[in-house]
Automatic annotation (TrEMBL):
Signal peptide: none annotated. Pfam families: Exo_endo_phos. It comes from the Eukaryota. InterPro entries: Endo/exonu/phosph_ase_sf, Endo/exonuclease/phosphatase, P-loop_NTPase. This is Endonuclease/exonuclease/phosphatase domain-containing protein. Residues 92-228 form the Endonuclease/exonuclease/phosphatase domain.
Length: 242
């Protein structure tokens, strides 16, 4: 809600919104007397330059990525209870731009097959995981300027229309605005050819620019699916649950 308010009121995305919060304090458990405090959740803090912080140890830090940030081969990330399932990064490409995608998965989930399809010429990357529970996870990135036909051709050359016995979930940054006519045409193609239905709301923005270029498709109904309101980065995180 805060993210949408900032876009609608054209508030600089570099600002960090602080919402006033209310806390109810009860005098005793045995009485109904209570006091409501409304205040902004701020505390005294300090800042330093990156040069000053070198060699220091901190209990916790916060990182805000205001621009798209790309990984390259050799970058290591650690997420509790997760492991790298598959990635499309290449050691030959050292540029941190339009470089690939990766899927991280819970360590206890068995993986049958991992497949990566990088296309650095067109800037379309697909990563696919086939799981033991007959679920196929597909993550796609397409750089700006690619058409619906370019993405469909990449899907035909990689995942095809096989594996109908799998529940397929396709998510990613398609760089096609799903609320436009081109986006509607793209959704129709995925529905008719791959039986993949759009699960996210095309009217709900997925970027701070007010577009819906990120989306989740699935071959069957999901228990829940949507957009997680956040100002962490330019793209708003998406979620889905079988």
């Amino acid at each position: 809600a805060v993210h949408r308010y900032m876009i609608e009121n054209k508030i600089n995305h570099k600002w960090t919104p602080i919402e006033r919060q209310a806390k109810i304090i009860h005098e005793k458990k045995t009485t109904s007397l209570s006091v409501t405090r409304r205040q902004f959740p701020v505390i005294v803090a300090e800042a330093m330059t990156i040069h000053k912080s070198q060699g220091c140890t901190f209990d916790s830090v916060a990182i805000g990525m205001r621009k798209e940030t790309w990984s390259i081969t050799g970058d290591e990330y650690e997420f509790p209870d997760f492991q790298l399932g598959v990635e499309t990064f290449s050691s030959l490409n050292r540029k941190r731009q339009h470089n690939g995608v990766a899927i991280y998965i819970k360590k206890h989930i068995p993986v049958i097959k991992r497949m990566a399809y990088p296309d650095y010429e067109k800037g379309i990357h697909l990563a696919v995981l086939y799981l033991q529970n007959r679920v196929r996870l597909i993550v796609l990135y397409s750089k700006p300027g690619n058409s619906c036909d370019d993405i469909v051709e990449a899907l035909n050359n990689t995942i095809g229309v096989d594996y109908q016995e799998y529940i397929s979930i396709l998510a990613g940054d398609f760089n096609i605005n799903m609320s436009t006519e081109d986006g509607k045409e793209f959704c129709e193609i995925l529905r008719e050819v791959y039986w993949l239905h759009l699960k996210t709301n095309p009217a709900h923005w997925t970027t701070r620019g007010g577009t819906t270029i990120d989306a989740v498709f699935a071959s069957q109904d999901l228990k829940c699916c949507g957009v997680y309101e956040s100002t962490f980065s330019y793209h708003i995180p998406l979620y889905g649950r079988l």
